[in-house]
From TrEMBL:
Domain Aminotransferase class I/classII large, first and last residues per copy: 32-331
Keywords from the UniProt entry: Aminotransferase, Pyridoxal phosphate, Transferase
Database matches in Gene3D superfamilies: Aspartate Aminotransferase, domain 1, Type I PLP-dependent aspartate aminotransferase-like (Major domain)
Essential cofactor(s): pyridoxal 5'-phosphate
Entries under Pfam families matching the protein: Aminotran_1_2
Domain of life, per lineage: Bacteria
Record's signal peptide: none
Stated name of the protein: Aminotransferase
EC code(s) of this entry: 2.6.1.-
Family stated for the protein in its record: Belongs to the class-I pyridoxal-phosphate-dependent aminotransferase family.
Organism: Paludibacter jiangxiensis
Length: 344
């Protein structure tokens, strides 16, 4: 990690009463999953499958692709670094603002990096990149691309590989996955996380789906045993438990829409509309770092200072919605801070 992603919950520990900084779903880990995990602890006594074969087979069936088109990773971040390594010293276009690890992975592997606003996907081919990196939905602003829009770019730029990060797809309304396009296009890699909707970021589990030829190329740059035995067991379990699949999505997204409207009503705040469980806002007077410090010190509320996202300034904040009660506390606390302003 060169630049970092900004999740600093560990810095504050027990001081944090509510965490609005992480984009995982606002719910507890499903009890059934915790119970299953408790029965699998003996798996740590043996080596895991080096390439997660059983999980690849299960995911292939679920996604309706060949198992050899699936590449299981230690979270989606490992996927980005593997892709960057496989295309070392390539020309990469990163749509910004976006997840810092796209750029970090490219820098580590000596890519020449170009940047465009994420509003300009239609203009992606103009710099003739070998790779285009985009989140769909995008972190941190929740921008969503229609599957037809991505398909059109794949068709128009057949010599460019598009890396589409769908980690937050289940945390968004109106999302259309492009996994179904991998057998129609040679230039598509879809990256996904299995941790966001199930609240398992500490487990580190993700995967890539692409054409078999590209998967073979990527696998030649992989390291064995990066996905531990417990993570593999959980992944296999989750592919067969549709009943655990993010049942409170509608409520969370409704809370997000409501909180966005409330913040939009405050003087001195501009909200970027988002269809996801997270959204960006910008404070006109106070810098994000100041707001973050006051929320943490005075109320025990942790937000994401989004100023280190390329393309955003020092006033950008990302909010990930939580429970009704927590959202209300955040709104009142931020209103209090903004009204008190620099005289605090």
């Amino acid at each position: 990690m060169i630049e970092g992603h900004g999740n600093d919950l560990h810095r504050y520990g027990d001081k944090v009463k509510s965490d609005f900084s992480s984009n995982v779903a606002a719910r507890r880990v499903p009890e059934a999953l915790l119970s299953f995990l408790a029965t699998q602890l003996e798996a740590i006594a043996t080596y895991p499958e080096p390439d997660s074969e059983t999980l690849r087979i299960a995911l292939g069936k679920r996604l309706q692709v060949d198992e050899n088109q699936v590449f299981v990773t230690n979270g989606s971040v490992e996927a980005f670094y593997t892709i960057a390594a496989a295309f070392r010293q390539s020309r990469s276009l990163v749509l910004v603002p976006s997840f810092a690890e796209y750029e970090d992975a490219c820098r580590m592997h000596d890519h020449t990096i170009f940047y465009k606003s994420n509003e300009l996907l239609h203009d992606a081919g103009n710099v003739r990149p070998q790779l285009v990196w985009l989140g769909n939905p995008n972190n941190p602003d929740g921008r969503l691309y229609a599957a037809k829009e991505i398909e059109e770019q794949l068709r128009q730029n057949s010599d460019t590989v598009f890396v589409v990060d769908e980690a937050y797809g289940e945390l968004c309304s109106g999302f259309e996955s492009v996994v179904g396009l991998v057998n129609r296009f040679d230039n598509l890699i879809v990256v996904h996380s299995m941790t966001k909707q199930y609240v398992l970021p500490g487990l580190r589990l993700g995967y890539m789906v692409t054409r078999r030829s590209l998967a073979t190329r990527l696998r030649s740059f992989s390291v064995p045993w990066t996905v531990n035995a417990l993570a593999q067991k959980v992944g296999i379990y989750l592919t067969s438990r549709e009943d655990l699949y993010f049942q409170n999505k509608e409520n969370i997204l409704r809370n997000s829409t409501g909180l966005q409207k409330r913040f939009s009503s405050l003087s001195g705040i501009t909200v970027t509309p988002s269809p996801c469980n997270f959204f960006l806002l910008r404070t006109e007077q106070l810098e994000a770092a100041v707001v973050k410090e006051r929320l943490m010190n005075d109320f025990g509320l942790l937000i994401r200072d989004a100023s280190n996202f390329r393309g955003l300034d020092n006033h950008a904040i990302r909010i990930s919605v939580q429970t009704d009660e927590e959202n209300e506390q955040l709104f009142r606390s931020m209103k209090n801070i903004l009204e008190s302003g620099a005289n605090h």
